[in-house]
Amino acid sequence: MPGPHAPSDADRRLARLAQAIEHEIIPRLMMAHRGAPTCPTVSLDGPALGAHDVEEFARLVLESDEDAAQACVETLLARGVTVEAVFHDLLAPTARHLGELWNQDLCDFTEVTLGLGRLQRVLRETSAQLALPAAAGAARELDRRILLLPSPGEQHTFGLVMVAEFFRRAGWDVTGGPWENGEDAATLVGSEWYDVVGFSLGHDGHVDRLAECIAAVRQASRNGNVVIMVGGPLLGQQPEVVQRVGADLYAADGRHAPAMAERIVSRHGMQN
């Protein structure tokens, strides 16, 4: 029999109900009654894209029709917001925000998958419309090739897709990874020449597997001086992981990743 101060079964059920109302039902009701999502109103001369803009754009991606997110991005670009700012300050944080909504049980798997799919569509269509011929031509003279892959075990690849777009815009020849063709990383680098192999890492439980994968890539690569680049939110929190996995560089910002990779590849070339 419970003591005079021990909670009864009814008390425990009431506490669980209160917790569910506070952490799940109320946030869902707040999201549902905030009104229709709107496109951020920032412009070239206005404030930078912020957390509120990300939240609104996430709602736009989740709740609106197929074309609403793309129309919003085109509006921002017409106001003078750069495509790099849209990619880095809006699309990437929105993808992370969708993941947070999923972790908090505010969105289900289907909703998040749909939202990420729409973000990838916006990314592809925007990049295709705003290619940079001069930069692309200059980089193609160097014949730089990069292979981008998720770390073994990683499920989220939107950030990697975005990095691929930055490299394409800089003129690099970009190849996708195993999520496209199912091949092993070592097999890919053993069959074709790559200047750089980039991995995205988002979970500390995948560090050891990534270290093994990178060691296998170095051993199998046709390019004996292949540069290994890593990126992802985990590296910003645990920079020592870069050395643990055996990478050459960490790209914290996808906008700067092509230039960083080019510097190291060029340095390796001069040493040969």
Structure description:
This protein is an alpha/beta fold. Mean pLDDT is 79; it is low at 29-34 and 132-140. The protein has helices at 9-32, 51-63, 68-78, 83-103, 109-129, 133-140, 158-169, 178-181, 185-191, 207-220, 233-237, 241-245, 257-271; strands spanning 145-150, 173-175, 196-200, 227-231, 249-250. The chain has 13 helices and five strands. The longest helix is centred in the first third of the chain and has 24 residues, at 9-32. It is globular, with a radius of gyration of 22 Å.
Which characteristics define this entry?
272 residues; alpha/beta; 5 strands
Radius of gyration: 22 Å
Relative strand content: 5-15%
Q: What helical percentage do the residues reach?
A: 55-70%
What is the tally of helical segments? 13
Shape: globular
Overall pLDDT score? 79
Strands across the major sheet, in which order? 2-1-3-4-5
Taking pLDDT < 50 over at least 5 consecutive residues as the criterion, the unreliable ranges are 29-34, 132-140
Q: Can you write the helix and strand succession as a string?
A: HHHHHHEHEHHEHEHHEH
Major sheet characteristics: 5 strands, parallel
Topology:
Elements: H1 9-32, H2 51-63, H3 68-78, H4 83-103, H5 109-129, H6 133-140, E1 145-150, H7 158-169, E2 173-175, H8 178-181, H9 185-191, E3 196-200, H10 207-220, E4 227-231, H11 233-237, H12 241-245, E5 249-250, H13 257-271
Parallel strand pairs: 1-2, 1-3, 3-4, 4-5
Helix pairs in contact: 2-4, 3-5, 4-5, 4-7, 5-7, 9-10
